[in-house]
Design brief:
The protein contains 16 helices and 20 strands. With about 500 residues, it is α+β, with helices and mostly antiparallel strands.
Length: about 500
Amino acid sequence: MMIDTDLEILDHESSRLLKLEAAQKTIPFKKVLIANRGEIAVRVIRACHELGIKTVAVHSTADADALHVKLANESVCIGPPSPTESYLNISSIISAAVATGAEAIHPGYGFLSENGSFAEICGQCGITFIGPKARHMRLMGDKAVARKIAIKYEVPVVPGSIAAGVSPEEALVEAEKIGFPVLIKAVAGGGGRGMKIVHSADEFTRLFEQASREVEAAFNDPNLYVEKYIPNARHVEVQIIGDQHHNVVHLGERDCSTQRRYQKIVEESPAPNLSQTTRNAMYESAVRLGKSIGYPTCGTLEYLIDPRDEKFYFIEMNTRLQVEHPVTEFVTSTDIVKEQIWVAAGRELSFKQEDIKFTGHAIEVRINAEDPYTFAPSPGMIEGYHPPGGLGVRVDSAIYDRYKIPPFYDSLIAKIIVKGRDRDEAIKKMRVALSECIIGGVTTNMPLLKKILEYDQFVLGHVSTKLVENLFEEEKRKSAEEFSKQDLANNLTQLPKAA
Ligand code: ADP
């Protein structure tokens, strides 16, 4: 019978062998297939080429002219435009990897990056999945399970009960126990889909049923849970990175409170106006959870902070590379993608916690091809492109002049990331970068990003998930005032002149 000590000896032995094998390698892998598109595929291809790794791009028929296809050493068309038939098509992707002799697959973010079955199939085909084990994805991918794990390892979670799979009537009982307002969320959630704020018992059943239909359509899983709604919350997350030898290190936090429709558009590190005590407690809880589950790669623990008392609550863990990872790379002088590739090949992390020094302040903005106010996507041909540049300015993008943004995928087309000595310098740098940036031919959210960078709540660091809503309300109020001033002026000019 296998006892714990035997398992530990085995584990220790395999870790020792892995370390030995990795130490003999001069490059982590000879060839890596990138199962993604857009800016993240370009980001990963760059990291691979710096490491001396040959790259294979995969693409749909709509992406034949995409930048990631042009930059990779080889490319394989994996299907028609629809993501289910191409970037989510496991058999096509595995066939492409086998046919090209790729030793590993990097999934980027989105698509198959958190799909446990995909990671398992990679393993069965002798291909290294650059990410966590299927076990980690299954544990943390189901938000209700992730909540239980967080509770087990004493990571604070938002007050609330799990109502997965229960009827609206039973869920209402839970909601009343928690106290309104509550938030209905999808167990399989992502991208804020299906989330509903409920203010009273009267509207609960209707919204619960509506959410259930929406998430069934989006995730093929109607299960929901209910959690206390925290008004004016801040979203602050901790980046961790581990290896296969039980080392887990944190790389600080990112404030991602500035969102539209529950989706991040501006991220920064460090989080402004946050006490060092809270910061340290968040780091400590993130590393504790990472170590407890033997987390072997990069991942992010997302928390909400209640601004009234600075209490923080775990909401979910993303077991993959995050869109906003460059912000952390700037303030920690690390390359998260290269590190992720090396640890997948069995090497130990190249740094210890005490080696990580945080310097300066970094901000990222996400440029989306969308209407800045309605957020309606705006695909089409780019006519005229000039990215910003200069000291401490980084642009991660996959667009070029005369590139046609296809309508089938995410609207993110570029990220501008800046680093200043402090927050004030970073804000000024971002304003200049945005003023230089030209993306012609399509509508983008740049006008909104520029306004955020000028908005006093942002400038003062009073960030919250309500910031964009507050900005819109203030604009409405100002234009109403302007309108009534104009109205008054018009009326005055129409008054009969005094004799
Ligand atoms: P998803 O996985 O769908 O993106 P998250 O759980 O990560 O959902 O939450 C996305 C965003 O929704 C958060 O950043 C925050 O703005 C808001 N949110 C989530 N949970 C709560 C809550 N309990 N109270 C207030 N806002 C919340």
